Structure formats: C-alpha cells, structure tokens
Amino acid sequence: MQNNFKEVNESYTLAEAILEAQRCLHCKVPSCKKGCPISNDIPDWIAELAKGNFGNAVAIINNRSNLPAVCGRVCAHERQCEGNCVLGKKGAHINIGKLERFVADFDSEAGLVHDAIPEKSRGRVAVVGSGPAGLTIAGDLSRRGFAVEIFEMEPEPGGVLMFGIPEYRLPKEVVRREIRKIERLGVVFHLNTTIGEGHTVDDLFAEGFDAIFMGTGTGVPRHLDIPGIEHPGVRQAIRFLRRVSLFENGLLSREEVIIGQGDRVFVVGCGNTAIDAARTALRMGAREVTVVYHRTINEMAALRAEYDDAVAEGVRFMWKSSITEFFGEPGAPKLSSIIIDTDGTKQRFEAEHVVMAVGSTPAGRIVSTTEGIRTDAKGYVLTTDNPYGMTSRAGVFAGGDVTNRPATVVHAMRDAKEVAEGIARYVDAIKLIEHIRQSENVN
Ligand code: SF4
C-alpha cells in the first residue's frame, strides 16, 4: 500500500470487453442512457464494441463526451448508467464504466479516431480554468468552429482532474492523453496564467475575444470555527491533494507534502475528497487514518465503492462524530492531540495531522476585478438560463463548481455542454448584429 499510487482498478482485456459488450440487450428504451447526465448513447457504442468496431464505438462516445477515459474511471456509475441498467434488476448490470474506459484507452493507444479540425470562423472564446467544465467547453466549441484559448494558472492543465483526484483513481497520464485530444482540435493553452491578477477579463475583451467562460472552480476551503484549528498540523484536503500531485510530478519535495511516515491522521468530512485524502494519506506512509463524520454512513456523499476500497485499505470511520478541539505546541508542524465528540461522549486521541474536507467556495479573483458579475452571498457566480450560463456581465459566462450547480465531474460536463450552447448562440447573435451594422454603414 505505502507509496503505491498505481491505478487500483484493472482494465478489461480485448476479449473480456467484447464478451461483456455482447451481454447488452440493446434495449429500445435504454434506461442506462437516461441515467447518464450527458445522455451518452450507451447501447449504440456498446453494440459497435460487441461487433469489434472500435473506431465506430469511439466516434459515438466522442459525440457526447470530451473526456471518456476520465468518465470511465471517476463517474458514479453505480448511481447513474449502471444503476439504471435493466440487467441489474435480476443479475449483473453491464459494466458500462469499465467498457467506456476500455474503448477510450484503446482509442488513445491505437489512435483510432482523428477528429477533423474545423475551420475557426465563428468567433473567439477565452476559457479561464481547465478543469472538466473548461475542457468540455473548449472541446465542444472548437468542434463547432470557434477559436478557443484556455488560460490556466497551474503549470499543467486539468484542474481538479490533475491536482484534485489522486493518481491511483485517475492516472495523470490518462488526463494528459485526453487533453492532447482537445489540443488536437486546435485549442490553445496558456499555462501559469492567472486571469484576475494583472491580466483581467476586460483585457481579454480588449484583445478581441467575443466571449469569456469562467470555469475557475472552488479554490477557497470552507472554514470551521473550532478551537485550535489554525494550528499548522491542520491541513485542507484540496491543498494536501494538490501538494501530493505536485510531489508525484517532481515539482515538490517529500517534506513539503507534510504528512509523514508513521503519522496518525484524522480526516474530517465524508465526501469523495475526504476519502481521496484518507487513502492518499495512507499511501504517504501514515500509520493510522480515521475519517470523522458528523452524520451516519447512509448520509455520506462519497461513493459506496470508494468507501469500500478505503475500508479494504485500512481506513477507519467514526460516524456521528466531530472534532471539538485541536492541541499542539505553538509553531510546531504537527498536532499532539484532538478531542472527538461521538454522540455526546468526548474522548482525547493522539494525532499528528487533521485533514479538513468539508467543502470549498470560489476564489474572488475574477469577480473582484471585473465590473458587473453578480454572486450570491457565498460567492458563487449567478447566471441566467437564456443564454444559458451567462453572468450579469454580457459576454461573460460561468459554469462548473464556481456556479454551485454541479456536484461531480460528469455533472460539471453536462452543465458545461449547455453553457457551450449558450456561448455559441450569444456569439452568433453579436456577430449577426455586427454584420447588420456594417452593411447599414456601407449602404
Ligand atoms: Fe444494455 Fe443495460 Fe443499457 Fe439495456 S440498460 S441497453 S442492457 S446497458
């Protein structure tokens, strides 16, 4: 286990994938497709796969998804497509996620489908942030004839896919391959470029972009008011996961990851980020890792499969429990102990680190440097339904976590597909108005 970031779930072999695909009934009214947030044409590509037509299967998947190798790995299949498959009612559902992953990986390795690069004549769109929402917008608009440029503050694109989801669940190389496919559509990436610090949204408009998409996610962890929480031994999950990712890429030293060999670690929260942080802490050499959650197992936001894997790896869980105080020498890098309240009973535990995974809110960089973008009280950007995804500032759109709508990677993608449609309609409309004005001036 220790230091083992190798992907946990095994892939199908070619023969296994075809056999599994051949079990599909190709239902006339496919309930699996209804369960998919992006309405992937599941029976159609599975039918092609069952016949061994891999290129056709890839092309059908690509119609709806820019990130199939990612979806095949991190989607909540048990609650979506697979949870709705008719075969699951009496026996084993089709393993749709594993099949999608097989097809996407097979395509990447064999280079089966080469999208034609469309002429970029419909307008220019700037995308700020390259997480699942930004990449989906970029892929969809690029395929539809828009010139798209992505601005990313990190040294590598991918956002939460690259810096938030650990290697053992989503290998970085898989994310890189998906990004290379989007690059091949003609999308331009500007890395280490933060919009809202020096370079603003108004600058982008002045540079000739017709629309700007904010897919900047939620980078500011929620703060809980607990005595001792400011101690350096208390870490935020998103920052811990980012540090591990940078360490894995050789960009940080082992010491900078903070959690060390033999540490006792508690993780607060029970969503997928909490489980990711717990399993990652084990891989970084923690001696004991315990998830502390104030509700019950039935109320956790984490996927059951992720929870089961965490238990199998040795992560412990304390339900209906909260940390009420942190103790540690002032200035020391590690805690000494914590107090946990379980259903009214308080107990002290020795602990070196606590990782907080209780949610996060958007950073205000763009909103604070751009006139006219309205947010709600928590800082989430408000958008309209017509055109879908536009903020209160004309031409500036938002989607993904920064709008507080999506909850998972695939929900961010579904939302982004609708925003892409909204951007296309908006840019087409302003181009038409420009064209009419120019013709009037000529006449
Ligand atoms: Fe195939 Fe299941 Fe979808 Fe029916 S519901 S088409 S059996 S995957």
Heteromolecules bound: iron/sulfur cluster
| Rg, nearest Å | 23 Å
| CATH homology superfamily name of the largest domain | FAD/NAD(P)-binding domain
The level of helicity is: 25-40%
CATH class term of the largest domain: Alpha Beta
What general outline do the C-alpha atoms trace? globular
Write down the domain tally. 3
First-to-last CA distance: 75 Å
CATH topology of the largest domain: FAD/NAD(P)-binding domain
What structural class results from the helix and strand content?
A: alpha/beta
* Main sheet strand line-up: 3-2-1-4-15
Taking the sheet with the most strands, its summary is: 5 strands, parallel
CATH architecture term of the largest domain: 3-Layer(bba) Sandwich
Number of strands: 15
Give the rounded overall mean pLDDT.
Answer: 92
- Identify low-pLDDT runs: none
Our count of helices gives: 17
Describe the structure.
- By secondary structure, the chain is of the alpha/beta class.
- It has three domains: 14-110, Orthogonal Bundle (Fumarate Reductase Iron-sulfur Protein, Chain B, domain 2), CATH 1.10.1060.10; 124-219 and 363-442, FAD/NAD(P)-binding domain (3-Layer(bba) Sandwich), CATH 3.50.50.60; 225-360, FAD/NAD(P)-binding domain (3-Layer(bba) Sandwich), CATH 3.50.50.60.
- The protein has 17 helices and 15 strands.
- The chain has helices spanning 14-22, 31-34, 42-50, 54-64, 68-74, 81-84, 87-90, 96-110, 132-143, 160-163, 172-183, 201-206, 237-248, 272-283, 304-313, 365-369, 409-442, and strands spanning 124-128, 147-151, 188-190, 211-214, 220-221, 234-236, 264-268, 288-292, 316-318, 321-327, 337-342, 345-350, 353-356, 360-361, 396-398.
- The chain has a five-stranded parallel beta sheet. The chain has a five-stranded parallel beta sheet with strand order 6-13-7-8-9. A three-stranded antiparallel beta sheet has the order 10-11-12, with no helix packed on it.
- Helix 3 runs antiparallel to helix 4 (54-64).
- The radius of gyration is 23 Å and the shape is globular.
- The N and C termini lie far apart (75 Å).
- The site of iron/sulfur cluster (SF4) has 14 residues, from helix 2 and helix 3.
